[in-house]
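Limitations
The structure tokens in this dataset are predictions for the assembled complex, not deposited experimental models. Users should treat interface geometry with appropriate caution, especially where small molecules or nucleic acid strands are included. An illustrative entry is reproduced here so readers can see what is and is not provided.
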Amino acid sequence: MTEYPVGATHTTARIVNALAGGREAGVTELAEELSVSKASVHNHLATLERLGIVLSSNGRYRLGLRLLDLGMGIRDGMTLYQTASPEVNGLAESTGESTALVVPEHGEAVHAAVEDAERNDRRIRLGSRLPLHATAAGKLILAYRSRDEVEAYVETHGLDRLTDRTVQSPSDLRDELRSISDRGLAFDRGEVWEDMRSVAAPIRQGERGDAFAGAVAVLGPAERLSGKRLEEDLPGLVLSAAKRIELDLAD
Amino acid sequence: MTEYPVGATHTTARIVNALAGGREAGVTELAEELSVSKASVHNHLATLERLGIVLSSNGRYRLGLRLLDLGMGIRDGMTLYQTASPEVNGLAESTGESTALVVPEHGEAVHAAVEDAERNDRRIRLGSRLPLHATAAGKLILAYRSRDEVEAYVETHGLDRLTDRTVQSPSDLRDELRSISDRGLAFDRGEVWEDMRSVAAPIRQGERGDAFAGAVAVLGPAERLSGKRLEEDLPGLVLSAAKRIELDLAD
DNA sequence: AAACTTGTTTATCTATAGTGAACGGAGAGC
DNA sequence: GCTCTCCGTTCACTATAGATAAACAAGTTT
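Predicted assembly:
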């Protein structure tokens, strides 16, 4: 009862996580890995199967696509997605690059919509999560928080260094967040992946534009996103797209 | 123990389902709806929140995007998706129509991959599920099953009539399945939605090509998919795409 | 300002989730 | 072809912990 009010649900979640990524596993295997009795693992798997979440074939278990269905439904139900989606698509059209709608969740930057530059060009996965301090959209999210909240974030999540360019110290982060909130625009110059660049603009909400709803971002390879294009052209397009979303959200 | 070996997990699932589609709800609301005590609902929600699955803001709860992340990971981990994905994209490219990879799961046709004809043209949602007897890919799935298995399907799932064109009787279904397995090709002429058409070809697997892995489908509005294009041109393209996937699966 | 909401907490109790051991079937190896 | 082994499943038991109802604490509404 110390951690999770409903322990059984926690166990189920652990089993599901162990099967994440399409891994196929047996009962004994999972039981040893999670330090739970075979019978218990079996019960959880049987329950999950009845729920349509896992599939079993001759004694081996794997996750089915029910959670994908659920997840897509959640995403489609988000009002922010509903109003932002056309603009995110339009932005991909006008820039010829991949675009995304990013929302904060549990201290992470989550990709609520992703539009690829072209087919067979999956850059980032829909629903994928990245640390706030390393991405353009993430830093934007932090820039709209109070000093204390940013400090709390650093405290709990730390400043993982994904590449040499990832912001390293709390003071560097603070400086960058200030300039970001001044311009109302954020960049990522290889802070997640060396050869990747992105620009993000905030989607504000509420009477005084104080509430932060999410961010729109354009992203792509450094070879295409650099110089004047990255610094001037794309920012303009991203900003105006974000602005249009803000207006659409108002009604 | 009658239904679900782990009752607590079942309760959690019921709560999650009640919140599906991005619905926001309070504790009391859910408690009444599901006939569970307030305290219990609260415990489950608190657990789900700690797991990063639900988000709460001033007493109201909703599902976050963690399940989407999980679901996408499951999909990306499917070997069938990995090998079929390029072909599904290519088929969308060459036909100019939407395409999909469909797999059977728990007696339903699940869309494991969807490639839209163009941006802003979402026809079917990724992960969405349709009854086997009404879709082209679904009937294909049934066509590769034994007579008994088909009968069992009808028994448990029934033959929901989605439109006037949906197959109605078990004998009609049997007849159609025979001609489908003869041609190795299936059509849907408005059986799910009146103004929708689709063609699907099977992806077979195993030594003697007896194991059924999934189906590739082209789908679109009846105004574009009709006549020679629907009956001859598209079938050829779909069949060859499916064949290429089968070959890629072999190695 | 009081009378409703609502979410949260508490204390009690019983159902049940977890355990270990036994069962049965499939495969491997001699 | 037989045994041995491994694994998934089932069984019976017990202590745990999920579910309950009632009290509590905030926040709205009237």
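Some entries come with short summary sentences. For this one: The mean pLDDT of chain B is 92.
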